[in-house]
Amino acid sequence: MKTVGAYGHAPLQRKNNVNGENRYKMTNELVVRTERLSKSYVADGIETPAVRGVNLKIRAGEFAALAGPSGSGKSTLLHLIGGLLRPTSGQVWIEQQALGGLTPDQLARLRLRRIGFVFQAYNLIPVLTALENTEFVMELQGVPEGQRRDRALELLSILEIAEYADRFPNKLSGGEQQRVAVARAVAARPALVLADEPTANLDSESGQKLMDLLRRLNHERGVTFLFASHDPRLLNQVERVIELHDGVIG
Amino acid sequence: MRFSLRLAWRNLSRNRRRSVLTLLAVLLPVLILDLMWGFSNAVQRNLFESTTQLETGHLQVHRADYRQLQTGLPLIQNVTPVLQIIAQDPAIERFAVRLDLPALAAHGDRSRGVLLRGVRPGKAGQLSALDKWVRTGRPLKAGDRKVALAGSNLLKALHLKVGQSVILLSASLRTGTGVLIPKVVGSLAPPSPQLSRSIIELPLADARSLVHNPQAASSVVVLLKDISGPWDQSRIEREARSLQAKLGPDYLVETWAELAPATVGLFKIIQPLYLAFSLIFFLLGGLVVLNTLYLSVLERTRELGVVLALGSSRRRVLGWIEVEAVLLAGLGALLGSALGLALVGWGSLGFRLPGFYAEFVSIGLNNIFYLSISPAEAALSAGLMFVLALTAAAYPGWRAARLEPVEAMHFAG
Amino acid sequence: MSRFYALTLLLLLMLPWAASAGEPRSGADLLACARHNWVTSSYHGSEDLKVFRADFSKEFRMEVWSAQENKQVMIRLLAPAAEAGSGYLLKGDQLWYYSPAAGQAVPLPSASLSQAFLGSDLNLEDLYRGTLSEQYTVKLAGSRKDKSGRLIDHLVLTPKPEAPVVYGRLELDLLDSNCAVLLMDTYDQRNSLIRETSFSDFVVRGGRVIPTKTISNDLLHQGNYSESTVDPSFELDIAIPPERFSLACLADDSQCGSP
Question: B102 in contact with C at a CB cutoff of 8 Å?
Fold first, then answer.
């Protein structure tokens, strides 16, 4: 097992942050662990490895990113960790739970309870308002309506889009939509938020704004983030960068 | 559930045109089916009524041996005891004594074989549509003697005019020859040209004078209470058995179905025909629902992939699609039923077929149709379509639930 | 009503007279011989007709005139009282009925010819089969001796193809000695026997052998049969005034001309 980071080694005891406040500390608690994780795609009889023998640990409270050029396997690794893909070999644990033996429904339940997703294309539900989108995962979790609403509104105001709560996604800018997507991911109180190229579709200002807000959530609320990105603006702001090349960390 | 409903409702509003199309796909079969059933019932009722009211009644009492008698007239020589029993039967609404005689009608140097129908003039005694068919002149009145009404084709064939007299000859071995020379006071235009060539209506007393028997009758025609169509057949048969038991073996009680097998045959053609049409409408409606819901799932593949990725269970996704189907199918079935019932209700007041459809009337129908539909039929058309729509939605729902989240999210459709 | 059957036969027998003595006779010869018994230019007589039904019987009495080999026939009913005075006039293929109650002659549709005459087992249609002999092929099917040793010939008449006849076959038994017809069986188109007519009580008048009793059995309806008896006082080949066969005479006996 090998953990490599360009900006230091995890776990770190956080001392400072951008906003000068650090209420949460990283703990030794492992949120993600992978062991010899591999994934190959087979097309036209040719096997193409995307992720090869990855060993990775993410601890609670980390603000980390998988980096590497496109095709390096970072999205695949993210999907493997999120239980959206099944590995060809190796294993993923989310908070001690091995994903290998789970049925699709058990995997879905685990994603629902423990993992938040932010996608490159925002992927909001177009017929729901910003507020409803934020409530969506909580609704699936069965959080009572009042509580759900309060939590959603609180997050929307932290993400500074409370005034757009009743807008539908097509009336929001890309940055605003992505912030709603973040609110939706975080509102469910997951152990881990996986974000695949969250800034890729945003202009630099919006991207910067989003990263600021994500860091704030990480700091103030201790939300663990794992990004997959090749956006230097993002990579500059994370505390740990895990480089991937041809599906191999290093 | 409220959330699911809201989601489904918004999804339906998202593509209004398609939703309206799906709604129509459910609504129209229900509406058409209600109308078709309404019309089928109207035709059946019309046929039933023109058969029972004019010709057969619901029940008829004859001499027990009337079918075996090859010669002579199968006359009930004294009908009074039969009438006493019938008058006391609470299930009987009204009855009429009839004396049908084959006879010869002559005028000048022409003559034709005719069917004489002796009836008691006036609504109560007549129990027939003869009055409705009076084209010129007047119907029979109580107290009339030595007057007759004749089919208009018969008048033409005999070169006879209203106001002139006609010679009626009746001859049978048993009753001997009877002669009557009534004055024709009106012409009849029955729907069947054949009947128009042969019918002569005259007062019962006159018909009885032709057979030299003031108590004679060929049949007693009985209409039962609260019978509206062939669907009441089991009650008619029950009453026939009960009346037969009361009258004893000298008489034969028959139902309209035994007396008019041709009409029963028509029903046997009509019913499966309507059933086949209904099935076709159902299937077409079902296919449109299947198609539109499938398209709407296909269109949302990516979105559904996200929902699955976020951790929604497959059952939940299936549920959403089904809720949409329930909303559409329920609304469609409800609106279709409401419209259908409204139209049937409007048609229940009676309407005439326009233009060339009037041709149908020549097969013995009245050209006034009264639409009707039973609550069971209305519920069946709406219910069946609702269930069918849900069944049709199951496939796209199942497809949606089977999506692989990652693949679905990368779906380009 | 044997007269009607007699007339039927008469028409049946209208075959070329081709018998020559000494030679064995063919079916056609026999039929022609039988016809000779009935060739009359005119006829006048009275007859009784009894109609029997399972539960019921009725008797008519009538007077009959005919002329021109049955092209003209007049029938006057004498009994029962209810029917007395009514009558039928047949001229060519036209038929009239007169009833005192109607007070005038009424033309009857041609269909009446094939209907039961006076409700009996006989009909007027057979009377009108003027072309009957041309419609049938005659064959001598065999001969036998009866109990009293008389030679009986059996003729089978089958319709020619396309012939417009209602019967499927006629079979006759006749006495070889004088060609008197004893029995006629009528078959329908499905070849089942529907009527059996027997002739008896023959009288010889002017060289002709004529039955005075005819019994017709309806085999389709058990118990239905008719019996007609001709009064032996009948006259043949007499002069009948043409007024006898007029509508005026049908309605009024005083308009029938002097006998």
Answer: no
